[in-house]
Amino acid sequence: MSSTSNTLRADARRNREKLLAAASELFAQSGTGVPLEAIAASAGVGIATLYRNFPTRDALVEAAYRSEVAHITDAATELLAAYPADIALERWMERYVDYVAAKRGMADALRAIIESGHDIYAETRGQLLAAFATLLKAGVDAGTLRPDIDAEDVFRATGSAFLLPQQDGWREQAARLLGLIVDGLRYGAPARD
């Protein structure tokens, strides 16, 4: 979370979070061309509140993307606290489909941000790799995931979800692909032999 979020009043922080959630959902559904007024309305705030938090569409897109990455990376620790490691990875991959949907909806705008000289992917890639590493290590330590695969391998394999055509049923297909990855990580695990 940015330092801006840490210094906001509680109500302002809630409004910001509602805006980010609404933006991520609408971007995933309709892309980043969705009217900003629709995002404000979905969040239950006025357009002035949106502009006070995000003076430009690019600022909103970047913040929404960073928020999605924070949610998915935080989920790794939360799920490991609630489930055995291999089940936590499975549940995390289910959430990863939502991350893929949000990122796909923001793809063009994110490319424009990068072209302007800001490499948002370098930092967020590191966060995602750390989440994968945390989940994999827990599974290896528990003996439920194979030890010969590293976070980079899994991260690259999940790229298949981004390559699916944007059509009806793509979420289900993405979930199946990510499920295959989890099944492959379980295959040959010491506790499963």
Mean pLDDT: 89
* Unreliable segments of 5+ consecutive residues: none
β-strand percent reads: under 5%
CATH topology: Tetracycline Repressor, domain 2
**What is the rounded Rg?**
18 Å
CATH homology group: Tetracycline Repressor, domain 2
Count of alpha/pi helices: 9
Content-based structural category: mainly alpha
Please describe the biggest sheet, giving its number of strands, its sense, and whether it closes into a barrel: none
Helix content: over 70%
Order of helices and strands: HHHHHHHHH
Q: Which shape, going by the Cα principal axes?
A: elongated
Specify the CATH architecture: Orthogonal Bundle
| Count of separate structural domains | 1
Instruction: Let me know the number of strands.
Output: 0
Distance between the ends: 42 Å
> At the first level of CATH, what is the class?
Mainly Alpha
Q: How would you describe what is shown here?
A:
The chain is mainly alpha-helical and 193 residues long. It has one domain: Tetracycline Repressor, domain 2. The chain has helices at residues 3-6, 10-30, 36-43, 47-53, 57-82, 85-115, 120-142, 151-157, 170-186. α6 packs across α9. The protein is elongated. The mean pLDDT is 89.
Offer a few descriptive terms.
single chain, 193 residues, mainly alpha, Tetracycline Repressor, domain 2, 9 helices, 75% helix
